[in-house]
TrEMBL record:
GO terms for biological process: proteolysis. The lineage of its organism: Bacteria, Pseudomonadati, Bacteroidota, Flavobacteriia, Flavobacteriales. InterPro entries: AB_hydrolase_fold (IPR029058), Peptidase_S9_cat (IPR001375). It comes from the Bacteria. This is Dipeptidyl aminopeptidase/acylaminoacyl peptidase.
């Protein structure tokens, strides 16, 4: 009898244990696709009662979720939505393909529209524009306000929305008539050609016109309805033009694009000279550009013939623009060189040297000051006096000008720096020690298309600044507000290890934010001053994610640099078992430690979904990697070895079953570590370099420049040029140690990769083959750097999984891994 009881107890315990184990989902089965979603574009209704957002799945993003902020359990969903808006009265407008719906959220009453050709909601005017009709009956432009028809214009063919300005084109007596919606009594322009675009300024309008012979023109219409044609002031045909008004005057900065210029096309043979600083222009298809100052009323189009500074930047001043020569100092050692900046007088074309500019340029609201970062330190230039002030402030964050340009705020460690432009006084505003600041609610200014980076950066001193504070070392985030007028700071969100994203604000008030953690799906928290509450939790059916466990591993490399690794535990972890571990390499990755681990095909590293491997019984390790004078490869090897040493005491990790994977830069690191380490049983490397010398002296068709800048001053962070460090480049190239690899390696790439040449992967494969090493390489014919086709994403993910299952868990050897039988020869 005792034996029977014992048997019963053993069976019962075994059954309970079996039930507690997770059944690994086959993520390649379509039934497991699109299970999890991300919260995108959250928006609060004007009355503060509702929050709406878009659900973003792997393959679809057409579902809108509406949440009642007071009764959080009141949640509604709307499918098939392409756009959504809250109206001024907090009605919900849902735009679908060919139709729309407006819902009164208080009463639940809705109104529907169909036969919609196009529509746009002008938020500043609380107006919805709807172009409705059919190709046979014609289309009308309807103007709706809160579900009420305010106006209708018949035979409208198109409309343009530019901020709060709206234009529409009517067909009348065979003519295209251009109207301003807010002053529709009289057409502002008439033509028998097609109007392609329109912009308004307080001095007139400009419209794109396509001429009968297919040529493009640009027209300026003054307030007196007089039309001025750009083509009349230039003898050369152009295929495109952009225009921006200079200050408050009637001069314009015009960028003209010319096409099919035989002199700009590569010849046969194509000649590459050693002193060529414009190599990228060889790939512009014969297009060329010119910049001119256009004064329509004076019939003047001044082309600048001074080659020292042909490029122009409009910073909002009537008298001056910034000019520079993009190519003059180009030696391709940096991604962008320092530029010689000039003050260009629009009235007479005179240029005066200002100083050196870095790859970033910001300007304020008055057109007087510009900031740039030569040598990675901020320099302030005064266009009126040509004075230059080196501020001795590193460009660790963005600068913002006050509305009157009297002050500049710099984001920095611990808070903000406030610089006074007239006195030069610099004041530190302390906010939170150890945290770096980011201003969340700056004033959105104009960007600069004619400069590598920058634009008009402004802040409002009249309303509180919302500032996101981040502690990089400990991966902590906080949110606070700061009043520029009173100096008062208020903590809105205490520091947390959770990831805070998609912060919504209005008039200096924090409304809501999306927050998540690696084992906590994103949720929406709404704020009312220093009070807050959660109104929505996403992915509620993801019950397993809460069981995922991770640990932050602190370690130092051999140079004494403090680093952190993120170690994820198998989902059904128990101390009684030992598990294989896969290490993912790239650069610093510890800031990903609070990112929600979605399953399916959400991947930071091509081919590997962390969640799937945890469910499959693996540890997954993300160590930080930094680079130093030893070279990229040896630095990565040292960091990975130090990270592995830091977890060596964890007996649950089977150190005889370690895998290493990386993609792109991580693929290179995997190749190198594989040729210099015996700690791993299998490797997987995607789109990785193998020969630094060859890559250094290659032309990169993604960046359209010689690739050596990436090694000397870019991602590879080598200590200098190949000329000065020949042995170091060779020693850090995996191909030169290819015979030393001691474990099987799986390689893949896309043959259209124009960033890391696919031949780098082929070269490494050939080297491994010549040395009789175990390797399988896949070359996808229709992919580039980063796979786009879902079928290929699924394919590579399946093969990576099969690779590690076989080598680390004694799984079945897939047919594609078996090679060619000898009998086939």
């Amino acid at each position: 009898m005792k034996a029977i009881k014992l048997l019963y107890i053993m069976i019962l315990l075994f059954s309970i244990d079996a039930i507690s184990q997770t059944v690994k989902k086959d993520r390649f089965n379509p039934r497991y696709h699109n299970l999890r979603y991300t919260i995108m574009f959250p928006e609060t209704s004007p009355d503060g009662k509702w929050t709406a957002f878009r659900k973003t799945y792997e393959e679809s993003r057409d579902t809108i979720v509406l949440v009642d902020r007071k009764k959080a359990e009141n949640v509604k969903q709307y499918a098939g939505v392409t756009k959504f808006y809250f109206t001024g009265r907090s009605n919900l407008l849902l735009i679908r393909k060919g139709s729309a719906e407006m819902i009164n959220l208080n009463s639940g009453v809705s109104k529907s529209w169909n036969q919609i050709v196009s529509s746009e909601f002008v938020k500043s005017q609380n107006t919805w524009l709807v172009l409705r009709g059919t190709s046979s009956s014609g289309t009308d432009l309807e103007i709706w306000k809160e579900g009420d028809l305010a106006d209708r214009y018949k035979n409208v063919t198109s409309f343009f929305v530019k901020g709060s300005d709206v234009f529409f084109v009517k067909k009348e007596a065979g003519k295209n008539m251009l109207y301003d919606l807010w002053m529709p009594e009289k057409a502002i322009y008439s033509t028998d050609q097609k109007i392609l675009d329109c912009r308004w300024s307080d001095k007139g309008a400009s419209a794109w016109i396509t001429e009968k012979n297919g040529k493009t023109d640009l027209v300026y219409i003054s307030k007196t309805q007089e039309a001025f044609y750009l083509s009349s002031d230039t003898s050369r045909d152009f295929k495109a033009a952009t225009i921006s008004r200079l200050g408050t005057g009637e001069r314009f900065l015009v960028r003209l694009t010319y096409g099919d210029d035989p002199d700009k096309l590569p010849g046969n043979p194509d000649i590459w000279n050693a002193d060529d600083r414009k190599l990228e222009l060889k790939f512009h298809g014969g297009d060329s550009e010119e910049i001119a100052v256009w004064d329509p009323k004076l019939r003047s189009l001044r082309m600048d013939t001074d080659n020292k500074a042909l490029e122009k930047i409009n910073i909002g001043d009537s008298m001056y623009v910034i000019s520079y020569n993009y190519y003059k100092n180009q030696d391709y050692v940096h991604q962008y060189p320092d530029f010689d900046l000039y003050r260009y007088e629009v009235g007479n074309g005179k240029q005066q040297y200002i100083g050196k500019g870095g790859y970033i340029l910001y300007y304020g609201s008055t057109g007087r000051f510009i900031l740039s970062n030569p040598g990675n330190n901020w320099v302030l230039y005064d266009l009126y006096t040509l004075a230059e002030k080196k501020l001795k402030i590193a460009d660790t964050g963005d600068p913002y000008f006050s509305e009157d340009d009297q002050y500049i705020l710099f984001e920095t460690e611990g808070g903000l720096l406030r610089y006074q432009t007239d006195t030069g006084d610099l004041v530190k505003i302390s906010l939170l020690d150890g945290f770096h600041s980011t201003i969340v609610n700056p004033i959105q200014g104009e960007g600069i298309s004619a400069y590598p980076n920058g634009g008009q950066n402004l802040y409002s001193s009249k309303e509180p600044l919302i500032i996101k504070m981040y502690d990089k070392k400990n991966d902590l985030t906080a949110i606070l507000s700061y009043s520029c007028q009173s100096g008062k700071k208020v903590m809105l969100q205490a520091s947390t290890r959770e990831r805070i994203d998609k912060i919504e604000h209005k008039n200096g008030i924090l409304l809501e934010a999306c927050i998540e953690d690696y084992n906590v799906p994103a949720y929406i928290k709404v704020f009312n001053g220093s009070k807050a509450k959660i109104i929505y939790k996403s992915n509620r059916k993801d019950m397993e994610v809460g069981r995922i466990r991770s640990e932050r591993i602190s370690y130092k490399n051999s140079e004494g640099v403090d680093l952190t690794g993120i170690l994820y535990y198998p989902l059904d972890f128990t101390d009684l078992k030992r598990y294989p571990m896969i290490t993912i390499v790239y650069a610093r990755q510890s800031h990903f430690g609070n990112q929600y681990l979605r399953d399916g095909f959400f991947e930071r590293t091509e081919g590997l979904n962390i969640r799937s491997y945890l469910e499959g019984g693996y540890f997954v390790f993300l160590p930080d990697i930094v680079f130093d004078k030893r070279g990229t490869g040896f630095s990565a090897l040292d960091c990975v070895n130090s990270a592995l040493d830091a977890v060596a005491g964890l007996k649950s990790i089977d150190f005889k079953r370690l895998g290493l994977i990386g993609y792109s830069h991580g693929g290179y690191e995997t190749n190198f570590i594989g040729t210099h380490s015996d700690r791993f049983k299998a490797y997987a490397s995607g789109a990785g370099n193998s020969d630094l010398v060859r890559s250094y002296f290659s032309y990169n068709y993604n960046f359209l420049r010689p690739f050596y800048w990436q090694f000397e001053n870019g991602q590879y962070k080598m200590p200098g040029s190949f000329k000065d460090y020949k042995e170091l480049y060779i020693q850090n190239s995996p191909i030169y140690s290819v015979s030393e690899i001691s474990a099987p390696i799986f390689l893949w790439t896309g043959v259209n990769d124009r960033n890391i040449d696919w031949n780098q992967v082929m070269e490494f494969y050939i080297g491994l083959k010549r040395n009789k090493k175990e390797v399988v390489a896949l070359f996808y014919q229709d992919e580039a750097h980063g796979f786009l086709k879902r079928s290929n994403k699924i394919d590579i993910a399946r093969r990576v999984e099969q690779w590690f299952e076989y080598h680390l868990k004694d799984g079945i050897k897939a047919d594609w891994m078996k090679g060619i039988d000898k009998q086939d020869y």
